[in-house]
Amino acid sequence: MKELPSNWRPAGSTRVAAVIGEPVTHSLSPVLHNAGFQAAGLDWVYVALTVAAGGAPAALDAMRTFGLAGLSVTMPHKEAVAQALAGHLSGAAQRLGAVNCVRRDGDELIGENTDGRGFVDALRHEAGVDPAGACIAVVGAGGAGRAVTAALAECGAARILVINRNRARAEQAVALAGSVGVLAEESAVGEADIVVNATSVGMGVRPPAPAVMPFDPRLLRAEQVVVDLVYQPIRTGLLEAAAAQGAHIVNGVGMLLHQAAYAFELWTGVAAPVGAMRVAVLGHLAQ
Q: What are the residue ranges in the chain where pLDDT is below 50?
């Protein structure tokens, strides 16, 4: 791979990828992917496109019409895109009923879900933690929680405790974990080797702050690994409280990075320059 010159500008030959969502102006995906394209020497550019709820089918039509080379999908469109691409989904996207990445296969659009694989890679490569054989509490059963739960089951977690206020959603997540899934109460956080906050509680809240927590942090123990999928701020109130208990803490940047790396490779066929992407996103967040 040869890095593009610093004075590179988009041209008529430039391929375009994008993220759709609402809100989307805060997205770090353009930072990640444009850094990756630059480092890989690819004549690609990545932009953020605001698409209101209900607009996912039209956005997919636009992807076809404009020849977009790849599409990232964020709230509130993941389930709607999965429905629109029914019959053209990867195994993970079909199981989860949610798509976070659309790739091209000739004239066809294929829905993928890279969130779960990205989470497991983040644990292993960013935090040095192997979830195989572990008891893991997943707090939250939305799209991120379901993706994490399914991926942890696939990689050999011994027991997955799903904690969520909405029982129906929790049961859906438990089902994705198969025989290792358990419907649990908040108090089960203390039993786990690894605790994952897969809710958005704490997003955008800078500690010290009022008690904005997904669960009571007094349940945590020093021997645990505590992961917060929230990445803005990098160190959330939950992570601050977990560190004070002596736990090993992991922020959400790793999952963001590795799910994007999988999307990058699906679109381009080129290994993602994860190091360059990491430097770019951490530099941006530091500002």
A: none
